Amino acid sequence: MHPSVIGIVVLAFTFAGVQLGMRLRSRLPDQHLSGDARDTIKLGIGLVATVTALVLGLLTASAKSNFDAMDANVKHAAAGLLSLDRTLARYGPEATEIRRQLQEAVAQRVDSVWQAGRSGKGAVDPSHSMQAIEHISSEIHRLAPATDEQRALKTRAVAAAESLLDARWVVVAGTAAPVPVVFLTVLVVWLTVTFTTFGMLAPRSRTIVLVLFVCSLSVSGAIFLVLEMSSPFDGLISVSSAPMDYALSHMNR
Fold first, then answer.
1. How far is CA 72 from the centre of its chain?
2. Beta carbons of 41 and 197 less than 8 angstroms apart
3. Nearest CA to 224 among 237, 211, 210?
4. Could you tell me which of 15, 178, 196, 203 has the fewest CB atoms within 10 Å of its CB?
């Protein structure tokens, strides 16, 4: 499910909890919401709210850490691609076709991941991209160096290609870690219970309703941001393509 849809669902559940709590306040006998009973409710919901905030904070930190790791991997891959291209350029005209294939493979991946990702359809498909890099690596292995310098450059190019393959699997593993549905469901239940209690204890007025709506909107926005960062190549918040664009613009020159 898209993060924006989940954010709207969270907003609907939490604010519906506020409305339910206000209805309960008008129907419950006074002894249920006064004195010791009110203090006990505040203590209980304070505990739930604290645990919810802690879990949401850990979830945010985990998503941000994964997002930063993917960003670092993209920068590392861009640097590796430039290094491989320049190594092949130094090898000589025998590697010209390999450089062209490498540039085409990178252009296809940038288009399929980032251009499609801006419309919410981006995907990191390991099979297609791996085949392209593996083919290029095989072509490098087939090079027949005639000098010591070319032999050294071929060895370096092979190592660079294998390093790109390894980095690719790291990116794929990082994108395959969405927020578990059960975990998200429990978090929404806790938030709904918390906001229901807020509505039950708060006096009914337009100002209170507006404040609680803003609180619901803030919480749903936080969950939306977490889910957006959990998909680093899709949606509104995505890893920048600038390093790959820069590498692509300087390849095969």
1. 13
2. yes
3. 237
4. 203
Helix axes 3-27, 206-230, angle to 10 degrees: 150
List Cβ neighbours of 91 (8 Å cut-off, separation of 6 or more).
143, 145, 150, 153, 154, 157
Residues 37 and 31: their CA atoms lie apart, in Å, by 7
Burial 14-28 (b: 16+ CB within 10 A, else e): bbebbeebbeebeee
Amino acid, single-letter form, for residue 213: F
Q: Is 235 left (phi over 0), alpha (psi -120 to 50) or beta?
A: left
pLDDT per residue as tens digits for the range 193-250: 999 999 888 888 889 999 999 999 999 999 999 888 888 877 788 888 899 899 989 8
Token pair for 173: 């593993």
CB 126 within 8 Å of CB 109? no
Q: Is 230 helix (H, G, I), strand (E, B) or coil?
A: helix
Q: Which residue has the tokens 């010791």?
A: 36
Tabulate helix, strand, coil % of the chain (nearest 5). 80, 0, 20
The closest of 154, 120, 133 to 238, measured between CA atoms, is 120
Q: Where are the domains positioned within the chain?
A: 10-234+242-249
Handedness of CA 224, 227, 229, 232 (dihedral sign): negative
Q: 0.70 exceeded by the pTM? A: yes
